[in-house]
C-alpha cells in the first residue's frame, strides 16, 4: 500500500504531473509515515501466529472483554494473563470461544493449537507446588507461540535426587525455563548440569526476607553458572516468550 | 576409562574371579565416582573448545599466573576477566603466550582463534563509551566460544537516530547482547525493533540513584518488551556465555 | 488593612499622640503579623486563577465535600485529585456544580474553563495505557492553571516508530510532560529529540522490580539526556503545576 | 547537502535518467540516512552555542585532553565537569587556553563568555558550604549556556532568617536552582515563597541516614510545594542545563 | 515485705535458729527475687501517675476490653492508642467510664485529668492536616503524664510565615514536639529558631518516595540543627512520653 | 544598632523630617533586615558559652585552621569534630592554644573549661570499646556546653551484669546518652531501668547486616521502651548537644 | 529391595543369563534410580516420627483438607502451620481427629503425643505478648518432633529483671529458642548469660522502621554474642525443627 | 572469694560481732557485686578452654599486640580474626609464640592444641575457592574450642556431583557448617541431604546484586530446608562458635 503510494508519487513526477518541489514536499512528509509502516509491517510478519497478550491484573473483566473483542478478529492467538477465577467466569460467559486454564490463571483464545515451529523442545521446571501458576503461564505461552513443550514440576533443591532423576529430560531440551521462589537455587543447579540456555524465573513465593521474590531474583542473577539469564519476578509470560524467541532463532547458511 | 572399569568388574564377575558380594561392594562405591565421572565427562564434551574463565578481580597477578599455568595444559582456550593493566603486565611477562585486551580488561590464552560453530551472528550493542569494557568482554567471550560476532558501540537512546541507522545489523543478528548503564533503556528499544532474543547487561556506570547499576538492572527486568532476559551487573562474560549457548542450541530433527 | 494599621501608628507618632518608645514597641510586635500579611497577600496575587487542590486519597467523600464547600466561595478553580468513582458520585450529588473526570480521577469545580495565559503549549506524552490516569491528571491540572494543552498517549519505547511519528507535536511544544511506568525509558528518548524542558513523571505501573515506580523514577533521574527534571511517583498534579510554572515564567526586559 | 541529494534523485527521474524502480530503491535507502541527517542537523541548530560536556570522573587527564582536542575545533563552548585539582593541572599545561574553576571542579574552554540569550535570570541558592561545588557547577553551566546568573550561597533552613532576607533576589529570578544536602529541606521552603519554577538538586553531603544524598532527594520529591522538579544527586550540570532550557522556552505568538 | 524477709533470715541466724549454711542457701535464692522486687518497686514508684498504654492496632476490641479491665483497678491512667472508631464504639459500650478521642484515635481511662507536675509546657507542632492524629496522640499522652500542653497545628514549611508568626509559642515552650510527614523539614526549621529540646516525629503521610515515613525520618535524623532527637514513624505516644520524661528531669542541688 | 536605626526613622518622622509615606516605605524594607537582626541576636544570647562546631571530615587541615582562626576571636569555645591524628598535628602546630583529644578525634579551643550550668549530670554509656570515639565526642560536647558529665564505657548487653552493677550511676543521672553499634540493644535495656530521658546514638561499628549502623539505628527507634529518642549514626556531637539542651530546659514558675 | 535388584542383575551375569553389555546397560540406568532410592530411604529413616508440615498461609481450607487426607495414612504426625480460626473450623469439621491450637495457629494430627527422644530440654523464650503465636509454633513443633519443651513468655529487655529471674530455666535448657520482634535485643542478652546454643527467631511485630521484622533479624545477626544462629522472620516452625535437630545430634563413641 | 565474704558476714552476725542492721546493709550492697561475681564465674567455668577472640579488622597491629599481651597470661587459647599479612608480621615479631594462619587470616596463641571434647565431628563445607578464608576461620575456631573438625572445600552447586560424592562425610558429621557466597544455594541442598543441624554462613563474595553477601544471606534464611540456621555475613568465627556450642550440648539423664 505504502509502497504503492511511493511509486505513485514517483510516477507522477516522471509523467510531469507534479514538480520536483512537490515531490520533495510529499516525500518529506512520507518519511515518518514510512517508518511507521515499515516497522509495523515488519513486526507483524515476524509475529505471525504469535500471541498478543493482555495483562489482566488490575483490569476489570469488562475491560478485558472489551480488549478481547477488539483483538480476536485480527489475531490468531490471544492470551490474557493473571486472570482470577471470578473474572474468568465473566469473560467466558461473554466470549464462550475462549477457554480458561485455572492453574495458569490464563484466558486463551485460539481457534486451533498452533503447530510447533521451533527448533526443539522448551522444558519448564519448577521448584515448589506454589510456583506452578507461574510455571504453567510460561508453558502455555511457549506452546501457543509454536513450541513443543514439556513440564517437570516440583523438583526443588531440598530433595536434589528428584532433579537428578530428570537428567534425560534436561538433556533432551533445547531451552529450559526454571521457575523457583524462596532462595531460588534451582536454576544454578540445573544450569550446572547442562549446556542449554536456561531462562530463570523468580517467583514471589516465600515470606520474611524472601522479599516478595527479590531474594530469588538476586540469587539467580548471582548464579555461579553462566548459561543463565533472568526475567522479572513472576513473569512466566516473558520467560515463555523469550524461550520461544530462542527456540526460533534464525539459522544462517554461512 | 570409567566405563572400562565397570566392564572390568563385570567381566571379573562373569569369569568367576570375584563373587557377587565383591561386585556389589565395588559397584556401590562406584556409584558416586560414576556420577562424578559421568557429569564431568558430559560437561567436558559439551564444553569442548569453550573457554574456562578466571575471575581476576580480587586475585593477585601471582594467583592468576598460578591458575593459568595449571589450566593451560588441559584447555584449548583460557580467559581471565577483570584484569587491570598492571596485573596484565606481570602476567604477560610470566606467560608470554597470553595476550591482553586492554579495553576488555581480559587475558586470553588460545593457540588459535576458535572457528565459528554457532548458528549465526552474535551482535553486541552498547549505549555509552563507558560501557565499552563490559561490551567488549561479552564480545570476546562469545568470539572465543566459537561465535561469529559484530559490535556496534555508542548507540544510546538519547540520540535514537544512531540506533535506527543500525537496523540492518539488528535484523541480521541471531542473538543480540545490549550493554547499558544509567537508566538502561536501550534493551527495551532494541527488543521492540526485532524478534531476536536479547540479552541485556546492566553496567555500573552512573552516579546517585543509578545505584551502581541496579537502576539499569531493574529497568531492564521491567521492560515492556518481552524478548529480553537479563544478567548480573557488569557481567559481560555471562552475557557472552549465554549468547553463545543460545547460538549453539541443538536443532532436533522432528 | 494591615498597611492601614502601620499608617495609623506612624500618624499617631507624627501627631505626637504616642512616643517613639511606644511606636517602637508596637512596631516590634507588628513585624510578625506583617510577615504573615505580606506573604499571604503576595501568594494570593501570584496564584490568581490557579487552582487550589485537595489530595483526595485517604479522605472520605464527606471530608472532601466539607473542604470543597469552604473553598468554592473563595477560589476560581478547585481541583480534587485521586477521587475514585464511588466517592465522586457522593460528591457530585452534594455539589452538582462540580464535574468528574473519571479517567483522571479528578473532581473539578470551575465556573468557566480558564483562558490560556502561558507562553506556549504544554504537551503531555504517556507510555502505556495504564499510565493514562496520571497523564490526564497532569493535563487537566495544566489546563485549569491557564495553559494550552495537547495529549499524545500510548507512545512507549518498545514501539519507537509511534513516538517518531509525533515529531511535529514534540517540536511545537513549549514544555513537555512525559508519563511512564515500568522501566521509565520514554523521557530519555523524548529529551534526546528536542531541546524543550521535559518534566518526567514516573508511575507505579509494573510489578516485581518495578518497585512501585521507583525503578522508573531512578531511571528518569539517571537519564543520559540533560533537559529533564523529575517529580514524585504518580504525581501528575505536580507535573502539571511545574509545567504551568515554566510556561508562565516572567520575561524580563533587559 | 542531503536535500540536494534528494533533489538530484528526483531530477534524474524527471529527466528519465533513472527508472521509477531505481528511484524507489535509492529512496528506501535514503530514509535511514535522512533520519540521522535530520535529527543531527536539528540538534546542532538547537544546541548552537550550548556547551558540550565531558563527565570527568573516572577519566584520566590524558583521556580528557584527548576528548577536548577533538571537540574544541567543532564547538563554541566545551565544559569538563568533576575534574580534581591534580587532573586540572595536567589538562591546563596541555591545553593552556582552558581555564579551571577550582570550586566548581570544572574545566572551561570558551573563546569568549556567551552573551545572555535567555528570558531572565537563573538564581542558584545553596544550603551549606559543602554544597558549593555542586551549586557552582550549576551556575557556570547556566552561564555558559547563555543565561544571566546570580548566586546566593549558605542559606540553610536551620537559620531561616538568612533565606528570608533574600526575598528580593527570589522574586526577581525567572528560574531558581536550589542545591541542598542532608535533609534537603530548602527547596520546599523556597518554592513556598515564590511561584517561579524551582529545580532542586540534592547533594551527597551528610553521613549516616543521609544515604549519600538519597534522603535529600526523596525529601525534595516528597515536597509539599508543587513548583518543584528534581535532578539526580550532585547533578549540578543537569540542573544548570534544565534551568537554561526553561529560561529559553519558545514564546509562541498565539 | 522483702526487706522483712531478709531481716527475718538474719534474725534467725543471729538467734541460732538456722546455720550459716542454711542462711547462705536462703540468701542465694533471695538474690534473684530481690532484684525483681527492687526493680519492680523502683519502676512503680517512678511511674506513679504515668499512664499505662495498650497498643490497639492489631488487637480486637474484645482483647482491648480484657486488658483494660485488668489494668483499670491498678492504675490511675490507662491509654489505648490506635483504636479506630468502630472498635472504640464496642469498648465504650463495655466500659462506659472510658472516653474516646476520635482525632487521636485514643481510648482514655482516667478518673480525673492529672495535675501538671512538669517543669514547663510541652508544645506540639504539626505540619499538615493529615499529621494531626499523630500530633494529638503525642499531646494527650503528654497531658495525661502530667504536663501542661499547647498545640499549634498546620504550620508546614511551604508557608513559612505561618510558622514565623508562632515565635512566641516556640520561645515559651520547655520541650517542643514537631510532627511532620512527606519531606519532614519542619523540625529543622523549628530547631534553628529555638534552643529548646525538639522531639521530631515523622509520620507515614505521603506517597511514592515518601516511603511510608522513612524519608521524613531520615531527613529529621540528617537535620542540620543539633537540638533534635527522633522517634519512630507515627510514634506520637513515644514522643509524648519522651517529652514528659524531659519535662520531669530531676533538678539536682549541686 | 538596628534598634538605633528604627528609633532614628521614628524620630525623623516625629520631627517632621520625613513623611508618613517615607516612613512606611523605609519600615517595609526594614522588616526583613529586622528579622535577621532579631534572630541572630536571639540566637547569640541563647548560645552564649555554647561551642561552635566544625565538622572536620572531608576538610583539609588548612581549611580547618582557616575556620578556627576566623571563629576563635568571636567565640568562647570552638570544637572541631572527626579530626584524625595527622590533621590534628598540623592544626596544633598552627594554633598551639588548641588541644586534641585523640580518642574523641576532637580539636578543642577553650581558654577555660566552662562551669557546669545545667540542672544535673549527663551520663554517657557505651556498649563496646569500638564505640568509645563516638561516646567521648558526646561527652566532651556536653562538658564544653556547660554540663557536669560522667562516663561508663564498655557495658554491652552480652554481659548484662556489668550494666546492672552501674545502677547507681544510672539513677543519679539527669539525662543519659547511650552509644551502641551492632544490634544496638543497650538503650532499650537502660531505658527500661530508669525514667530519665535517654538519647540513643547508633554507631557504624559492625559488619554484614549491621549495615553501617542502620541496624542499630532501626533497633533503637523500634525500642519497646518509650523514654528514648535517637540521633543520626555516629552523631556523638548531636547527642551531647541534645543532652545539654535537655539539661538546660527552662524551669517556669507556675 | 533395590539391593536385591542389584544382586539379581549380578547373579544373572554370573550365571551367564545376561551379557556384560546388558549388565552395563542395566546398571547405567540403575544409577539414577539408586540415587533416588537411597536418598528417599535415608530421609525416611531419619525423619521417622518427625512431623510433616503444611504451610497453611495462602491455601484454602479445602486444599489443606486434601493434603491432610493424603498424608495422614502415611505419617505419624502431621502439622499445618499458619491456619486462621475460620479455616481451622472447616478443617476440624472435615477431619475431627485433628486438634487446633489457636494461639499457635496450628492444626495437629497425631494419634499420640510423641515420646521425648532428644538429649535434653528445648526452652522457648519470647519477648512480647504479640510474639506468642510464633513462640508457640516453635514450641509445638519441637514437642511433636520428640523433645521435652518448656516455655517462658513475656520476658522483654525493657524489664530485664523478669529475664534475670529465669536464670534457672536458662541454665537447665539444652537448646534455647528466643522469639522477639521490634528491636530484637533479647537473644543477645540471653546468649550472654548461657553457653547453650540459641536459635533466634525475629517476628514481624512492630511498625515504622521495624520493617516487618527485618530490624529484629539484622539485630540478631549482628549480635555481640556468638552462640546464636538465626532463622527467617516469623519462622517458628523452622526454629522448632532446628532446635530438635540440635537436641538429637548423634553422639559418636570416639 | 565472694562466697567467703558472704560466709564471713553471716559468721560475724552469728557471733554477734555485727548487728542485723549492719548485716542487712552489707548484704544490700553485696547483691550487685554478687550478680557480677556469679555471672562472671559462671561464664568462666563454662568457657574453660574456649578461645577468647579479638576482632582484628580496624585495629592496628599495636592495638592487637597490646590486647594479646593482656589476655595471654589469663587464657588458654586466644584467637585474633581478620588480621592481614602485614599486621600479622608485626604481631609475630612482637609475640613469637603466636602462629599465623594466612588462609584464615587468624593469629592463634595456644600452648597446645585443645583436646576434642565435643560429642562428634564438625564438618565445614565451602562452595567456592574465594569462600575459603571464612570457611577456614570457622574450622580453626571450632578446632580451638575443642572439636574434632573436617573440611571439604569447593563443592558448589553448579557442579552438584562434587557434593554428592561427599555423602559419607555429610552423614558422619554431628554438625555441618556450610559457607557460600553469590547465590548461597549450597546450604539448602546440603540440609536436604541430611538431618544434622546446618549452620549457614553467607560470604561477601560476588558482585552486582550479590549485594555484598546479602543475597546469599537472604537465600539461606529463605531456604526450603528446615534444619538450617544462619549467622552474619563472613562470620566464620560465629559459625565455629555456634557449631561448638551445639557439639557440646549438655546431655541430661532423664
Structural description of this entry:
8 copies of one chain form a homooctamer. Chain A is of the alpha/beta class. Chain A folds into 2 domains: 3-109, no CATH class; 121-247, Rossmann fold (3-Layer(aba) Sandwich). Chain A has helices spanning 2-14, 20-47, 61-71, 85-94, 132-144, 160-164, 167-172, 186-193, 214-221, 236-247, and strands spanning 52-55, 78-81, 99-101, 106-109, 121-126, 148-152, 175-180, 198-202, 228-230. The longest helix of chain A is centred in the first third of the chain and has 28 residues, at 20-47. Chain A is globular and about 80 Å long. The model of chain A is unreliable at 30-49 (pLDDT under 50).
Intertermini distance of chain A: 34 Å
Q: Low-confidence stretches of chain A at least 5 residues in length (pLDDT < 50)?
A: 30-49
Oligomer: homooctamer
Structural class of chain A: alpha/beta
Portion in helices of chain A: 40-55%
Q: Order of strands in the sheet with the most strands of chain A?
A: 6-5-7-8-9
For the record, the count of structural domains of chain A works out to 2
The average pLDDT score of chain A comes to 85
Biggest pleated-sheet summary of chain A: 5 strands, parallel
Number of helices of chain A: 10
Report the β-strand fraction of chain A as a percent range: 15-25%
CATH level-3 fold name of the largest domain in chain A: Rossmann fold
Give the overall shape of chain A: globular
Amino acid at each position: 500500500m505504502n509502497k504503492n503510494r511511493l511509486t505513485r508519487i514517483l510516477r507522477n513526477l516522471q509523467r510531469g504531473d507534479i514538480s520536483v518541489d512537490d515531490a520533495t514536499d510529499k516525500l518529506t512528509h512520507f518519511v515518518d509515515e514510512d517508518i511507521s509502516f515499515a516497522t509495523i509491517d515488519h513486526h507483524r510478519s515476524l509475529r505471525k501466529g504469535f500471541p498478543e497478550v493482555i495483562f489482566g491484573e488490575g483490569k476489570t473483566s469488562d475491560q478485558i472483554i472489551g480488549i478481547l473483542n477488539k483483538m480476536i478478529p485480527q489475531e490468531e492467538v490471544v492470551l490474557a494473563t493473571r486472570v482470577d477465577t471470578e473474572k474468568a467466569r465473566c469473560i467466558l460467559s461473554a466470549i464462550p470461544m475462549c477457554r480458561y486454564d485455572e492453574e495458569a490463571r490464563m484466558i486463551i483464545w485460539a481457534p486451533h493449537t498452533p503447530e510447533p515451529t521451533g527448533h526443539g523442545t522448551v522444558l519448564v521446571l519448577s521448584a515448589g507446588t506454589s510456583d506452578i501458576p507461574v510455571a504453567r503461564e510460561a508453558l502455555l505461552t511457549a506452546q501457543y507461540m509454536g513450541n513443543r513443550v514439556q513440564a517437570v514440576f516440583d523438583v526443588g533443591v531440598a530433595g536434589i535426587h528428584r532433579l537428578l532423576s530428570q537428567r534425560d529430560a534436561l538433556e533432551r531440551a533445547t531451552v529450559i525455563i526454571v521457575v523457583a521462589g524462596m532462595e531460588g537455587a534451582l536454576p544454578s543447579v540445573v544450569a550446572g548440569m547442562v549446556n542449554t540456555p536456561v531462562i530463570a524465573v523468580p517467583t514471589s513465593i516465600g515470606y520474611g526476607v524472601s522479599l516478595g521474590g527479590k531474594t530469588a531474583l538476586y540469587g539467580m542473577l548471582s548464579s555461579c553458572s553462566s548459561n543463565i539469564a533472568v526475567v522479572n519476578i513472576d513473569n512466566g509470560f516473558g520467560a515463555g516468550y523469550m524461550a520461544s524467541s530462542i527456540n526460533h532463532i534464525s539459522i544462517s547458511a554461512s
